Amino acid sequence: MNRQRLLCADCKAPCLMKEINDPEAVKIVEEKKTTLVCSKNQKIFHEDMPVNSISFIHSGIIKVYKTGINGKNHIIRFSKTGDILGHRGLNTKYYPVSASTIEDSSICLFPKDFFITFLENNSRVAFKLLLFFSKELENSEIMQFNLAQMNVREKVAETLLYLNTTFGTDKNNRLNITLSRQDLSDYAGTTKEQVSKILSEFQSENLILLDKKDIIINELNELKKIASFGVHLS
Question: What is the span of the domain harbouring residue 157?
Fold first, then answer.
């Protein structure tokens, strides 16, 4: 990881710190912030690592996951520009999850103790964080329901819908995120082989088009019908 000097005033990322209206508070935040540039597939933190900082994504995409039985990962979410990282360690000594980059990324770190004190004195930012926690809990409950109730075909369709909602597509309906089959399966809660099989089926049905690791969505409504048994993440 390399350090980079980045001013909040020049940043376009829609992070919580943009809610600060006090110039003096912004100055303090600038002094406490460290920005790191990370390469693709670089680990930001891992489970059971001491929580020393809270981070915001300045650019890039990062996967947040837990490691289960036999070392298999379960991806909880894919975080994008503006999202917070490490917040689940606010009230614990050690991270309960791991985070790694999907692509070249940069993150802004704040010391944990400073961030907690900052929240105590900035109700607007604290309220926005509370809303984020509420939405994250809702999505976690939905994911648990879907994993328990959906078959593999429905899980893969729901995963594509989640990626479409979270990252969107370009003018050619190509998802704005490129994932390995392993990452897709780790999120969907199935195997890499099953994901590859279902994606091939979707392509033969003209629901999607596969371009190496990229996925082009041809029939969004049909994917919604397949995943209609589950509850969709918003």
Answer: 150-226
